[in-house]
Amino acid sequence: GPFDLTIRNGRISNADKTFHADIGVRDGIIAAIGQGLPPGREDVDAAGLWVLPGGIDSHTHIEQLSGMGVMCADDFYSGTVAAAFGGTTTILSFCAQHREDRIPDVLADYAQRAKEKAVIDYGFHLILANPDEQALVHDLPRIIQGGITSLKVYMTYDRLKLDDYQLLDVLAVAGEYGAMVMVHAENHDMIRWVARRLLERGHTAPKYHTVAHDALAESEATHRAITLSRLVDVPVLIVHVAGEETVDIIRKAQQLGARVFAESCPQYLFLEAKDTDLPGLEGAKFCCSPPPGDKASQEAVWAGFKDGTLNVYSSDHAPYRYDASGKLPKGDATTFKEMANGVPGIELRLPLLFSEGVMKGRITIEEFVALTATNHARMYGLAPRKGTIAVGADADFALWDSTRKVHVTAAMLHDRVGYTPYEGRELNGWPVQVYSRGRCVVRNNELQVARGSGQFIARTRPEPMVDRKPSGKRGIFSGLVGLSSGPTEP
Ligand code: URP
Ligand code: ZN
Ligand code: ZN
Ligand code: ZN
């Protein structure tokens, strides 16, 4: 029969190739890709446009209480609307356990809130703050089997940090049940030690955030996380990689055969430490952890994306307003240590990389697709359903007009942050129509779908966790799961 939707004459790019074809969609699924397909009930001429897989943003903080206790400004409605306007059709956001919380309660709470509000598809990673016996033996296996096949752990922040013993416990369970472990790698004591001395000397301005979070804190913790993952032979994914030395450490480990994966974000390609050096507390708008470095670290991140050291490009959208509800809990008296960490970027993630990467010839369109969609699907168990334009996959794609010029302002964006660190940038190219499961989500700069129309996606085993050839020692370690959670420090 006829298609629900036919997209004609577009230039389609996947991670492996680019070709001209029509796409026929039925019941939200891509039913055919070919030449001269029959008309659809909705028939779209995409001549002159790129048709790219909808972006997958695998690192977003939405309607979440941060490690420092600050609530995000975006809920599952505004967060997913902003994502969609920027060409993203799936997000993974965090269910954040705080140490006193029961994991099933945390999940139920996030699931309910997202279900009511999301306009595109979504999944969750669990932030695990308390890997006790209950979590390791009961909760984690259950939630992984329920489609939450990834978790994030922190090596810093007082309320979230795990010690090395706990990281090993988590890795062992993740290896056993098939979940990807994302690590926020920064050395807690190095940051704390430097920050205390800065504050004692009255150095409280936002620019000292970047001094306190020295690149060595990131590279040391990254090396340690990788070493722990190698000990138990369980893959690990280092999130928000910023520094040159960190990229080198990851590359070296990969060359040794370690199954280490890594993410970086727009802020490490397009912002610099010196952006935080502004009058008053303005610099807070550019503060995230780890902090952006300099031109050399930007080049190292580009090189890491080019040679495959870095696999996924996510936003780490951390939507905090520039006021007492977010970035500045103590108003004008807020020190760098009290600011909420993180910058917004869910809507501009793809347009920034398209403009500065693809249009300027730094990366190919196929690399763009891999970094923004396909690799996320592979790393987090969304493939083959999402991340590639293929028969049988969800009809998630965006039509990009490479001739569209956009002058970035906070006012044009759909998040609730109120500022953007990319204010005033001139971008080339924009996703002008966005489809999720065959539904037109954005057209003519208007949202076309209702609140709550996005779906929870129960994810399968991440690709690095499938097909594993466990080393001899893995067998030994896996037998200890459940017995290994000895007493840990509070
Ligand atoms: O500064 C950042 N990245 N804040 C968001 C929380 C996190 O650790 O990803
Ligand atoms: Zn983090
Ligand atoms: Zn984050
Ligand atoms: Zn302009």
TrEMBL record:
InterPro entries: Amidohydro-rel, Hydantoinase/dihydroPyrase, Metal-dep_hydrolase_composite, Metal_Hydrolase, Metallo-dep_Hydrolases_sf
Domain of life: Bacteria
The protein, known as: D-hydantoinase
Pfam family, one: Amidohydro_1
Protein family membership: Belongs to the metallo-dependent hydrolases superfamily. Hydantoinase/dihydropyrimidinase family.
Matching Gene3D superfamilies: Metal-dependent hydrolases (3.20.20.140), Urease, subunit C, domain 1 (2.30.40.10)
Stretches assigned to the Amidohydrolase-related domain: 50-440
Recorded GO MF terms: hydrolase activity, acting on carbon-nitrogen (but not peptide) bonds, in cyclic amides; metal ion binding
Cofactor(s) required for function per UniProt: Zn(2+)
Keyword Hydrolase: yes
Gene Ontology CC entries for this record: cytosol
N6-carboxylysine: residues bearing it: K152
Keyword Metal-binding: yes
Renumbered residue ranges of the record's region Disordered: 464-490
PTM field: Carbamylation allows a single lysine to coordinate two divalent metal cations.
SUPFAM superfamilies per the UniProt record, alphabetical: Composite domain of metallo-dependent hydrolases, Metallo-dependent hydrolases
Biological role: Catalyzes the stereospecific hydrolysis of the cyclic amide bond of D-hydantoin derivatives.
Keyword annotations of the record: Hydrolase, Metal-binding, Phosphoprotein
